[in-house]
Structures are given as structure tokens and as C-alpha cells.
């Protein structure tokens, strides 16, 4: 508008006198406010300055902060002092609730340590964990023909197949349990059969014999066998004019005390200075002792007697297994 006015004045001057000149001073009003200082938590300016530009971002408090750009940093360069641009998401130790409907907005889920939570899905169903009957959310796995893994059917651990019997059409796990039970019974029967036929094996391997001549000390206590076994036979002689007595306990020597320990087996040995004796065979099965067999000889008839025989007057041969 001011320029147009000056043109009009110039035209009038030319009309009045071609040699006339004019001087004028013009003032330009930009009508722009002073620049606004950039600060954190600032409120929106009433008018936008025209002599500067910057970008501000609205925060959760409703005010504005300068938008911090990420410096240009090369790959694999140090970036410890750089604040990375946050990607939208909320931290939670548990899975968030489903939104109401398809196409609703959802927030990304992150664990409390910052790792993004990822769930595998199958046919739109979250993957299931644990054992039990498989469903639509369970990934199907097929074992290779050369796999060393084990295979069980869906009824493993269930109660529906617990009562399967011989010839039934129960699940695989029930039949396997039935077979296991039958094998246990067969094993028990076989063990019993082996025990009853052990005599045949013993006859093939032969028996052992303990030969002893009295020494006249410590009641001639002698450990015949330190473990369980069977007493198969005895042959004992006595050269004293008086009878002597052989006694045995079902104990190891360390646990036997003549005159105190319970007598498991005992006999009187006939007397004769020219030698008398006693022999007995207890058959192929013998007399079983469950712990050990320890024997001794004394002069008295009482089981509590501890009087020792003389050296060389008693000789025994005890046959055992």
C-alpha cells in the first residue's frame, strides 16, 4: 500500500514539474514477536516466532520438551552417552489381558528387564506348555525314524487307562504297565525257582571244609564262615577219656562269646583215649545259618561252660557252603 502511495506522489510530481524531487523515510513493521527461548517443560507459545524454528514434543504432563534427536553414530561405535529413541511398549512380568476385539489398538509387551516378550502361536492360539492331552495350541512334533527319544501316547498319566487288563483295548501306556506288572511276577517266580534249584548249582561247584586241631586256648573259637550259608556235615574226634562238647553260633567270630552267645548248633563228642568221635551229614540242603558260623569246644556240658580242652585232643572237619 505504501509503495502504491509513493508511485502516486511521483506521478503528481512529474505533472507539476519534471525537475521536482522528493525525499521520504519508510518503516517496515514485520509484526513478528520476539523469538521464544527453547526450554524443557515449556508451554505452547501464543504466537509462533517467524525468525527461528525448532521441534518440540508433548510430554505426559501436557507440556512440551525439546525433541532430542539421536546423533549420527556409526555401527559398532561407542554410544554409552546416547539416549536411544524409545520404542512404544509397557514393561510387565505377566502377560497383559487381551483387548476387547479384533482391530483394537494394542500395546507392545516387554519384560521388566527390557526384553521384548514373544509368544509362539499355532493357528492363532498361544503355544501351550506342560504335559497332558494335546490341543490346538500345541505344536505337533514327529520323531525321526532314527531318533533316540521315547514315545508315549496321550493317555500317559491318566486314570482312564489305569485298569487295563490282559486282552483289553486300553491305551498303549496301560498295556505297557500291564506288561511291566506281568514281567515283575515272572521275575519273582523265576527268582523263587532259582532259589529252589540252587542245590543243583551247589553240587556242581562243591562244598567247603574247615579242618581244626584244638590248641587249648580261647575255647578254640574258630570262624567257619563269615557270611550266611549252610552246614552240610561234621566229622569230629576226641582222644580224651572224658566227653567234650562242640558248639556253634549263628554269628561272626567278632560277635561270638563262648559261654554267653546263643548256641546255634551243639553236640557231645564221645570219649576214648584211643579216639572216639561223631559224624553227621545233613543232606544236600544242609542246615542254613543266616549270618555266619563260628564254633568252639569246651569240657563242660552246660552251654555256659568255658573250660578249655587240651591241645591236640580234638580234631574236627566241618563241611559247609
Question: Overview of this structure, please?
Answer:
With 321 residues, the protein is α+β, with helices and mostly antiparallel strands. Strand 1 and strand 2 (64-66) form a beta hairpin. It contains three helices and 15 strands. The protein has a domain at 203-320: Jelly Rolls.
The averaged pLDDT comes out at 76
User: What characteristic shape results from the CA principal axes?
Assistant: rod-shaped
H/E element string?
A: HEEEEEEHHEEEEEEEEE
Name the beta content range: 15-25%
Secondary structure elements and pairings:
Blueprint: H1 2-16, E1 56-58, E2 64-66, E3 90-91, E4 109-110, E5 121-122, E6 125-126, H2 172-196, H3 198-205, E7 208-213, E8 222-225, E9 229-238, E10 244-249, E11 265-269, E12 276-281, E13 287-289, E14 293-298, E15 314-320
Parallel strand pairs: 3-4
Antiparallel strand pairs: 1-2, 5-6, 7-15, 8-14, 9-12, 9-13, 9-15, 10-11, 10-14
Give keywords.
321 residues, 4-stranded antiparallel beta sheet, alpha+beta, 5-stranded antiparallel beta sheet, Jelly Rolls
Q: Summary?
A:
With 321 residues, the chain is an alpha+beta fold.
Amino acid at each position: 500500500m505504501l509503495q502504491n502511495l509513493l508511485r502516486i506522489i511521483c506521478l503528481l510530481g512529474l505533472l507539476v514539474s519534471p525537475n521536482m524531487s522528493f525525499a521520504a523515510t519508510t518503516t517496515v513493521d514485520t509484526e513478528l514477536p520476539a523469538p521464544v527461548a527453547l526450554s524443557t517443560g515449556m508451554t505452547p507459545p501464543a504466537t509462533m516466532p517467524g525468525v527461528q524454528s525448532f521441534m518440540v514434543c508433548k510430554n505426559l504432563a501436557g507440556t512440551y520438551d525439546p525433541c532430542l534427536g539421536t546423533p549420527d553414530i556409526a555401527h559398532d561405535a561407542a554410544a554409552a552417552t546416547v539416549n536411544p529413541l524409545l520404542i512404544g511398549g509397557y514393561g510387565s512380568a505377566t502377560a497383559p489381558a487381551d483387548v476387547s476385539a479384533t482391530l483394537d489398538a494394542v500395546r507392545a509387551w516387554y519384560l521388566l528387564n527390557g526384553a521384548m516378550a514373544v509368544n509362539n502361536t499355532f493357528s492363532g492360539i498361544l503355544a501351550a506348555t506342560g504335559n497332558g492331552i494335546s490341543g490346538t495350541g500345541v505344536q505337533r512334533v514327529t520323531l525321526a525314524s532314527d531318533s533316540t527319544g521315547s514315545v508315549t501316547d496321550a493317555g500317559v498319566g491318566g486314570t482312564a487307562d489305569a485298569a487295563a487288563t490282559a486282552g483289553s483295548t486300553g491305551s498303549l501306556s496301560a498295556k505297557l504297565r500291564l506288561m511291566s506288572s506281568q514281567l515283575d511276577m515272572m521275575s519273582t517266580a523265576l527268582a523263587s525257582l532259582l532259589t529252589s534249584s540252587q542245590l543243583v548249582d551247589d553240587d556242581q561247584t562243591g562244598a567247603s571244609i574247615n579242618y581244626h586241631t584244638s590248641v587249648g586256648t580261647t575255647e578254640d573259637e574258630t570262624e567257619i564262615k563269615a557270611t550266611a550259608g549252610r552246614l552240610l556235615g561234621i566229622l569230629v574226634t576226641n582222644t580224651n577219656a572224658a566227653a567234650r562238647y562242640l558248639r556253634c553260633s549263628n554269628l561272626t567270630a567278632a560277635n561270638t562269646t563262648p559261654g554267653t552267645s546263643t548256641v546255634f548248633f551243639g553236640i557231645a563228642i564221645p570219649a576214648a583215649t584211643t579216639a572216639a568221635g561223631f559224624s553227621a551229614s545233613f543232606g544236600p540242603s544242609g542246615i542254613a545259618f543266616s549270618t555266619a558260623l563260628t564254633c568252639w569246644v569246651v569240657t563242660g556240658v552246660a552251654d555256659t561252660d568255658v573250660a578249655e580242652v587240651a591241645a591236640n585232643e580234638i580234631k574236627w572237619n566241618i563241611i559247609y557252603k
